[in-house]
Design brief:
The protein is an alpha/beta fold. It has six helices and five strands. Helix 3 runs parallel beside helix 4. The longest helix has 16 residues.
Length: 157
Amino acid sequence: MVTIRSLVLFASIVALGCAPATLHAQSPARPAADAPARSDRALVFVLTTGLDAQTMSSVFRHARTAAEQQRLSEVVVLVYGRGVQAFDGTISARPAQLTELIRSAMAAGVRVRLCASALVHMGVDRDRLDPQPTEIVPNAIATLVDYVARDAAIVRY
């Protein structure tokens, strides 16, 4: 089933010149030999949804796939609002596979940036983050504005 989110993600990736691997009949980890050169643009996935297993899992799967293409200067998951719950190691309702998906995305080169303000607002202790993000930024909105000013493509979940 095709969703609006899937269409937005596909449109963002195509706009960056990075069609999904299945369109190139190639391995997801390597671009095709005739693929365009690496882009100077960043792709930012914004996660604000809390404890929605499907959405949270999709963000990190999609970001990992984008990073594996090695066509962008940077692939980021920017997390704020209720999205910080994905990293709260004390929440038993968190899907078991979510931590592994986050680690897998980070291993593929995805930068995960959490909002310090959201951590405080949601009562998430930095010492209990699991896994640890790449970076904790003071304010996710200021970070998002910086990415937009640098012409990054933004996909919101």
